[in-house]
Protein: histidine kinase
Organism: Actinokineospora guangxiensis
Amino acid sequence: MLPRQFPLRLPRALAQASQRTRAVASDVAAVVLAALDVWLVVPEAPPWYSPWFSWLSVAALLLRRYLPFGTVLLCVPGFFFGWAQLAAMIALGSLAKRELLSWKTVVGASLVCVCRFILWPWVDFLDLTWKQHVLDAMYGVLVSGMPVAIGMLITVRGQLSARIRDLARSRDREKRLYAATVRAAERAKLAREMHDVVSHQVTLIAMQAGALQVGTEDPESREAAATIRALSTQTLEELRELVGVLRSGGDEDEIQPGLDEVDTLAQDGVAMTISVDPVDVPPPVSRAAYRTVQEALTNVRKHAGGARTLVLVTEAEGHLEIEVRNSRPRRGQAAFPSGGHGLLGLRERASLLSGTLDAGPTSDGGYRVVARYPL
């Protein structure tokens, strides 16, 4: 279990700034603070070299991202002979952030500590009491140790954050693998059930339809039996493909027909107009469009055999609109039982895609199905 984290939130403007912009702003702030530290403590009559070394230390901070150890070496004279204490501390912190606890960091910290402990000129240093020497030694350790600790803390915190992100990604990947294993087991089980039960029943329907087609003398009954046999055979082919995908563990969406195959559903008496490029339609909407036309044409064959049918697939106001309209059915057409489950399934599919589906009779005695899916 990973501990709950409370990340520090930066101001929105700073968080949205690029890394280069933040780096430039940090360099400018470091130079300004170091310059103020030098300018505010300049004595009245300093030696001629002290200001030069101090301002050199301030200018050397511009190199701290590229030559951190060299920057520390350039800042040491300004701290020892002048007043550039803050510049030396900033340079040492940058070195510790880059190198962590390496020999360069140890050397840089030792030099900064010596600069804080030893007072220049030597006469002033020798005049100090032992208590002042002890106090200067304590401040030397503090001045050199604090930048090292802060620099290492920043680096270690970044490494720890990266490690936590890696652990989170590993945990998510493990969850996905576990879910994929469970889905594979369920798909295999579903494939066995579909093959053993559904395909067996559909095969019997096809066989019975073939026997009826051969044994009957009624032309309409023979045509209906041939249609049933053809639909059963097509259903078996699609079922075998789906079972194969379920057993292989592939994505069933890869074999689902889409809008580019809608024209294969057209038969005699069906006029189809498609004014939408199938490539521009999202795959879920494309599959839903195919199933809508398929179900609507199936209902026409079941309840309005021989009726003229019009299929329109258009795009309007960012939506894909599918309209299937049929005329009045022929008289004497045998009625097939229907429970309305096909249209109910289409409405559920449309609802999942944030679409709508309307179906109902028309004024001329026909029927109309209209589905709208957002693109």
